[in-house]
Amino acid sequence: MKVAFATDDGNRVNAHFGQSPMFAVYNVTKSGASLVELRKLPAVLNQDEAGKIDSRLDAVSDCTLIFIMQIGASAAARVTRRKIMPVKVPFGSPIEEQLKRLVEMLQGKPPMWLAKVLRAEENSGSEGGEANGTHG
């Protein structure tokens, strides 16, 4: 599964969803995590709140989880409607640490929220392809 992290340095979760200058996107499986890409958002002057949310939703549309420091209620609703689960973590949490915890959860018995997300991903990706995260 693909997982995004709201970041301004590529190393820590240190950005609010609506203000994040980029997302570090990783592919995460039971066997580990690998960086897919750093998705930088173009700076748009005078962009309204809806535009900021839209551009960020587009940037993470292929992700299953998004780790953020903070997210507004309307943005959270729009993210979850896209079948992306927002995960709030403390400011400055190292991405590597979050990835390690996520891989450990996948290897063991995932908590209910993660099991639900994985089931939904399996059901939507069952036609084939990489969506079900079975490679590796």
Automatic annotation (TrEMBL):
<dbReference type="InterPro" id="IPR003731">
    <property type="entry name" value="Di-Nase_FeMo-co_biosynth"/>
</dbReference>
<dbReference type="InterPro" id="IPR013480">
    <property type="entry name" value="NifX"/>
</dbReference>
<feature type="domain" description="Dinitrogenase iron-molybdenum cofactor biosynthesis">
    <location>
        <begin position="9"/>
        <end position="103"/>
    </location>
</feature>
<dbReference type="InterPro" id="IPR034169">
    <property type="entry name" value="NifX-like"/>
</dbReference>
<dbReference type="Pfam" id="PF02579">
    <property type="entry name" value="Nitro_FeMo-Co"/>
</dbReference>
<dbReference type="InterPro" id="IPR036105">
    <property type="entry name" value="DiNase_FeMo-co_biosyn_sf"/>
</dbReference>
<protein>
    <submittedName>
        <fullName>Nitrogen fixation protein NifX</fullName>
    </submittedName>
</protein>
<dbReference type="InterPro" id="IPR051840">
    <property type="entry name" value="NifX/NifY_domain"/>
</dbReference>
<comment type="similarity">
    <text>Belongs to the NifX/NifY family.</text>
</comment>
<keyword id="KW-0535">Nitrogen fixation</keyword>
